[in-house]
Each structure stands twice: as structure tokens, then as C-alpha cells.
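Q: For a teaching session next week I want to show students how multiple molecules come together into a single three-dimensional assembly. I've collected the sequence lines for a complex. Could you give me the predicted C-alpha cells for the whole thing so I can convert them for display?
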Amino acid sequence: MIRVEGLRKSIRNGARTVDILKGLDFTIPQGQFAAIMGSSGSGKSTLLGLLAGLDTPSEGNVFLNGTAISYLPEDKLAQVRGKTIGFVFQSYQLIPTLTALENVLLPHELNADAKEDGLGRARELLVSVGLGDRMDHYPVQLSGGEQQRVALARAFILRPPIVLADEPTGNLDTTNGAHVLELLLNLNRTEGTTLVLVTHDPVLATYANRRIVLRDGLVVGDEMNASPAEAPREAALSEG
Amino acid sequence: MGALSYRSAAKIAAREMHSSRGKFFFVILSVAIGVAALTGVRGFSSSFRASLLNRARSIMAADLSARMFSQPTPEEQKGLDEIAASGVEITPVTELLSMASAAKTLDPLLVSMKAVDPSMYPFYGEVELAQGGRLSAVLMPDTVVVADDLLVRLNLKVGDELKIGTKLFRIASVVVNEPDRLSGNFAAGPRVLITREGLEASGLLAPGSHAGQRYLFKVPRPRSGALISDAAVADLKARLEKLLPEAQIIDYRETNPALTQGLDRATSLLSLMSLVALVLGAIGVAMAMRAHLQQRLDTIAIMKSLGARSGQIMKIYLLQTLLLGLVGGLLGVALGVGVQLAFPYLLAKLINVDTDFHIQMVTVVTGLVAGILTTLLFTLPPLLDIRGVRPILILRRAVEDNDDPFVTAIRRKITKNLAQIGAAVLILLGLAAIATTLSDSAVVGRVFSLGLVAVLGVLLGASAAVLAGLKYFLSKTRPHLPSSLRHGLANLYRPGNPSAALLAALGMGVMQIMTVYLVQQAVVTELHISAAPNLPNVFLIDIANNEVDGVRALLKGEHSVTAAPELLPVVSSRIINIDGVPADQAKLKNFPKRMLRSINLTWSDDVPPGTKTMEGSWWGAGERGVVVALDERQAERLGVKVGSHITFAAQDKQMVATVVALTKSDGQHAYSRAEFVLPPTALAGLPVVWYGGVHADPAHVGDLQRALYKAYPTVTVINVAQALETVRAVVIQITYVIQFLAAFSIFAGIVILASSIAGTRYRRIREVVVLKTLGATRARIATVFSIEFAVLGLVAGFVGIAFANVIAKVLLNRLTVAYHFQWMWTLGALLGTAALTVVTGWAASHRILGQKPLEVLREE
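A: Of course. Below is the structure for the complete assembly, covering every listed component.
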């Protein structure tokens, strides 16, 4: 469960202070798929970053499963992120010196408490995202869609209760985008994770249970979607 | 798009520089430190060298001297007059042995007379008088200046009269030191300085007298006020050698081997250090610019997709480079001038250096030009890379698959990089030109640049090989390695991470720093030996065979004697045949035939102290054959080589000796006086006198002289303590300066290397962010980077140090200095390099590690 209380973020831009988030309060229950929407500059990526503890808010706090994370020391935060959050970036952010398999395995290796056989799960995940034959390839040897699929597998390796995705299909063509989305939704469903997805694509948002709309740093819309769209069909994915 | 004007290009370049000031700080720092080291080292060493050369001249009291063995013939005199007419100053110095006595007691004493013209002599340096004042003020036709020893022996004091020949002279002062004491005759008897008129009036210069004559020459200073060039001295030397075939002509550099060798070595070392400083700076710049352009790939791709041509983009970065070179160069020159001005003050505590240092425009301009040129040259290859950037990079940062066979890959690389190869050739030529200008020698320039290229090539090859080896190791062991180690090693192969280039650059830096250190250390050790505080400074002449044990005992008991005495047996002999040619028909070079009738032989089982075997080999202990070792210069004059035969005669015994070794002496030991050394058995039974050399505390040489005179009145004591102290002081100055400048160069090198390592940090930022997002702690990230840096440091250190040893060995060999492999230092340097890379890597990444991930992600 994610709870946000009075979240504000301002940054100094020269002599000027810019308020990016102007006080947000909401809760996302366990297992929900929430889409955060808004135009460019509305503060959605900043919000996602604060949810993941990638930055410190100017005011307010973020609680992940009841724990306030916003003001934890850097290394403590890193541990929280490792255990609790899977993150998917718009531009994949794979470590270029590691193979696909090693990239997926990395969070497992970074987390000293991980008990499960990481290698087995990493392979399994790569097979499930359709990259069973590309495990030993380096990121540069993979296409954008393939890199994002590796990033997805990486986000899920530790079975995190929360997955945060920042425009995960933004850099991909329609086919690859659909494939990645389908994988994301399937993983979300099978793993039972809370999924927060930042997007400005209204079509993408139709798949979510809930839509939170930001404008100028404020929540201007928060509505539930009783009948989310089905995941894109396999037939549309065969080209990916 | 029209042509990009220089104005617009400059605007873009300046904005880009402004926006990444931190990064360019390292580029400017590299250039500045390189140029500062160059300007500082070069400026200071050229001033220091000039002042040292003057000191060296004062040891001969002239630029050149010609030792004559007979009066000049009328033609020779005419030639000398012509030389004098061309502006060269000439003054004769006559030395002879004579008897002098106190006017009151008439006790006779053998004295070593030296007649000079006090208005001319000495051309350089000063005659030190115990009572102070100048020689020309006290030495008159009716006065003499004498050594303290004479006063002791004849029980006289200043103001008393001394009878020389038929005339009485008043003792005007006591001579403590003559500048050319070490280059004059080392004959028996205390010194008496007299004017030429005085000597003539004494009636001692009768025809047939054994007076030795030296002419001292002073080359006129060029009208421009510049220093007298070595070429002008060499010209005069050649002219004199032709004019006076029987005379021994030596120039001021040959007077004291220890000093001139020290000077030569210091000069070579210092010019090496200047070049090293320059190349280190260039490496720093090349690394930083490469990293910078790598980061600008997106910008470049965007500009290209907007229609910019490679040439236009290159214009921007070329201007940037020029600006960086200029700013760095100016800063470096200012720093270098500061350093040059600070050196004398910093060194003043250690040595008394003349503070006549002035800023030489040539050095400043050379430094600035060299800075800009090397910056340009070394950034050419990354600049040319701009041509290869494809606009598609904006959409996808793809790297071509590289599964080609090795040879094909190499061939493709060569054909694809023709421009880079052209640039490399240009760099080589540019470097050669700069090196030639800096070292004032085309040979040095050529050797240095070719050597540099060879070493760089081998270093790159070796680095690539080590990296390939590691990669192979990694591929085999990958799943079994601890993840930090695996990740750290894998980072060496980060795309766009020029590990091989960084390794080569680091290796090159380590190599140069280590070479400077090794050469400096060996040279300084040698100089310390030649300036050792216990070298003989008092020489004893004509010790009879039955007195030798007594003299030895006396010297051992004397408190002023600080080292074991060296005693040298001398057998008078003559040469009657060289390689089957009778002595009177032998072809000799600058060696009068009559000198063959009076030579000194000595014996020794081992190589005597202060002597080096240059050719052939010394005999083993207990050698029973008749073999001989002689000084290489003497061998040249006599026209003998290893394997030649010389027939010596001593009393009624004749022996044919085979030359087995040619030697070089440091001129500082008793044995340096021996011309021919044979094994003891060869000279057994021949009449012998002994010569001795002993080190005494310079302040108490008088006591020693008195004690010796009391016990052994026939033994002559020659005191060169003061003269040797002068040389010693200069040699010690050289060692300090070398060490100081080497330390400065090494420090500069370390700063530059550190900044090239720091320059790679921008590539790591994104990686740190991703790792943090995935849950990595700072400790974990630091471990991964430390492994990467440590491996880089160890590999670069290993390759660099290995090469440094090879190069130091070759260089030292050329300088005839012994090379010793130094385990401790090598190991220390290896670990030091690894520590340096890790620490600078950490220091540079520290800020990144502390950064909030979103700050970086937001910049995307």
C-alpha cells in the first residue's frame, strides 16, 4: 500500500523557486493498478520519483506499507527500494556492461536477504518475456523493445509488492509498446503487485483500475475505472 | 544550413564550456600543470645550468687551456697572436719546481712555482687569499703569495722575505685556493704564486729549465650579451689542436669529470623532465576531451539531424579546444613563472644558489605554444571521431556487432580510421618538432617522439592484450565470481569506455613518472658518490718505501683524518715500444714523445677506487701474466687498444705488457694519478715510491701538514681541500636541483593522471543512479568502482613500471650510470598506482554517490 501525505516539492531555479508538487494526499491500496496522468510539466515524474524514494520531498511524506520513507538515509532508502519497489524507466536504464541475464539478476545480488534461487528466477523471467535465447546478450545487442523487456524482468525479480513504471512504452513503437504493456499487466496480475504507471497516453490509462490526473502540481482528477480494458491481444504482439 | 560562422561557432563553444565548467576544469588543469611544469623546469634549469657552467669555467679559470711541453715555435706564436687579435683573451701560466729559502735562515725548500699575470689571471673564479683582497692588489713584481704549508716549513710569516733564485721577494699574502688548483700540476712542494716579471727577474727561467707552460684562453662573449656557446669553445679548441699539435688542449668541461658529468646528466635529465611534463599534460587533455566528446554525442547527433555538417561541428569543438589550450596555457605559464621564481627561495634553505634568475621570454612563449599545440594535436583524434557520429544516435544508441575475425576487424579499423592515422602521424611530427625545440637537438626530438610512439603502441597493445585476457577469464568464470567483482571487472568493458586508451594513458603516465624517478635516483646516487664527503682532499707525494708503514700509522692516528688513507705505489718507468713500433717512431696524438721516457706504473689486484673499466676486463686476483690497464684518453693519445702490446722498461728490466682494460677515472682518488696499472707480480722487486691520498677535515688540514712535516720532512703534502670543497658544493647543488625538479615533475604527473581518472566520472553518473534505484547501497557501488579502478591501476602500473625500467636502463646506460632494479620501489609504485586510481576514482565519484537519483533522471 502506498500512502502520500501533504507531499510538496519545490526546486530552486536560479533566483526563482518553482513549485512542482503543491501538496498531494492519496492512498493506493495493495494490488491496485493506478495510472498517473497529466501533461508534460504537471509533476508526474517527480511524484513517481518521490514514491520510489529517488528524491527527498520539500514537505510531506510517502509511506510504503506503513513505513515513512521520504527522509530515510540514502543507504536505508536503497534497501527499501531494493526490497519493496520494482522500477521501470522510459529509457530502460540497463547496465551496459552486464548481460541481459546479469541485469535481471542484479537486484537479487544487491539484496543480501534474497533467499530464492535468483539465477533460476532470472532465467524464468527472461523466458517469460520472450528472451530465453538472448540471455547472454549485452544491452547494445538488443532492440529497444527487448531492452525494455529485460528491464521488466529486472523489476519483478525480487517479487516487489510495488512496481513503479515511468512511461514504460514511451520509447517504443506500437507493437513493441503493446507487447511490453501486456507483459507488465500479466506480471502484475500473476505477482499480485501494486502498479503505479506514469503516462500521458489516455489509451494506456484505460487498462488501469484508477486514474489520478495531475495539473500544475495538484491532483485535479482521481477516478476509479470499474471495467479496465483487457490486456492487448497476443495476435497484435507476434511481430514484437 | 549556411556556413556556420566562427562567431556562432564560438558562441556555441563558449556556452557549452560555461555549462560544464566542472568538467573543463580538469582539461584546463591538465594543460596548465603540463605547461607550468614545462615552463618552470625549463626556465629554472636553463638559469641554473648557466650559473653552473660559469662555476665549471672557474675550476679551469678559463674556457680552454693548452698545456705546452715546449716553447711555442714562431709559427705557433704567430697563430696565437692571430687568435688573440680575433678577440680571444690569452694569458700564459708557467709552472716549475724550484728551491726557495727563508731570507734569514737560508733553509732550502722545494716549491711549486706558478707565474701568472695577475691583471688577467684568473679569467673565471677568484684566487682566495687568507687575508682577503684581490690577487692583483697584492701580487707585484717584487712580492709573492705562498701556501700556508711554506710558512710552516720555513717558519715564516706574511711580510717576511723569501729568496727565490737570485732575488728576494716579500710574502704579501697566503693563498687558500686557486680556482684552477685541480687542473694544474700536482707536483711536489708548497705553492708560490709570482708575477711573470718576478719569475724572469729571479733568473730561474734559464734555457733548458723544466718549466711547464699552460696558456689559458677566454672566448669573447657574443655582442648580444648571450652566454658563450659551447660551439664557440669547441671551434677554438679545434683551431688550437691544429695549431699546437703537441699541446694537450682541454676545455673547461673536461677539468673535473665529476662536475661536468653531473652537469651533463643533470642537463639530459632536466630536458627529459620538461618533455615528460609536456606529454603528461597532453595525455590529460586527450583523455578529458575524449570523455567530453563522448558525452556530447547526443548533441552532435541532434545537430547533424538538423543538417549540420561534420566540418561545422568540428569547428565548434576545435574552437573549444583552442580556447581551452589558450586558457590552460596562460594559466600554466603564470604558474610556471611563479614556480620558477619560487624555486630559488625554496631551495635557498638547502643550497646557496645564485638568485640571478630572470624570466626568459623564450621559455614563456615556448611553454604557451607547446601547450596550445599539444592540446590541439592530442584532441585531433577525438575531434575526427565527430565525422563518424550518425544522427540515428538520437533514436538508438547502437554499437555495431563486433564478431568479425581479428584480422578483418583490424583491417576495417584501419580503413575506417585513415584520418585518425593521419592525425597520429601529425601528432608524431608535431611532437618531434616540439621536442626538438625544447631539447635544442634534432636527434633527441626524433628519438623521443619515435620512442614515445613505439612505447604508446606497445602500451596500447599490452593494455588491449591484458584486457582481452581478463575478458576471457571473465567469460570462463563469470557465473562463479562474487557479483561485485564480476560487475567491477565487467565495467572495464563499458561501451564507449576507452579502457585500453585509459590504460595506455595511465600506463604512459606511470612509465614517465617512474622513469624520471629511476633515472633521477641513479644519477643522484652517482653524484653523491662523486661528492662523497670522504674523498681524498690531501695528497702526499714521494713517500719512501721504508716510510710507508709509518705514514699510514700516523695518518690513522691523526684526528683530522676522517677516512682510511689510500696509498699508491709508483714505479718510474718508460715506454720503449708500442705494438712493435719503437717509441721514437710511434704516432702519438697530443702527446710529446719525450713524455714516453717518464711515466708512472702502479700495481693493484682489483679495480682501484674511483676507476671504472670502460673496455676489456680487469684481471683476477693473483694474475701472473704481464697485463696492463690504462686510462682510455691516454690510450687514445698513444694509439693503443685492448689487445695492444706496450713494452715498458724500469731500471734494467723490460717487459711486454698486453693491454687488457681501458679505464676511466673520476679524478678524485689517489689512483687517478696512476697512468698504467699492472698486477703486483709484474712489478715485484722494482724500486718504488708511494703516493697517498687522504681525506682530512678542511678546517684542520694545517695541523695534519705540521704533523707530517715533523715526522717525515721529505714527504710533500698537496692540499686541495678548498678546491674540492668548491666542487663538492656544486655537485651537491646539482643533486638538490635534480631531486627538487624531479619531485615537481612527478607531482605534476600525478595531478594530471588523477584528473584524467576523474574525467571518467561523468560516464558513471547514470550507472550510479540505476544501481541506486535497484537498491544498491553506496558501499556496494563504491566496491564495484574500486574493483574497476584497482584493476585499471594495477594493470597500468604493471605495464608502465615494466617499461620505465627498460627505458631507465637504456637511458642510464647512455649516461654511463649504473642501473639497479629496485624491488621495493617497483612494488611501491605498483601499489601506489592502484591506490591513486582508487582514491581519485572515489574522490571524483564521491559527489555522484551522494546525489539524489531523481536529480540526474530529471536531466534526461
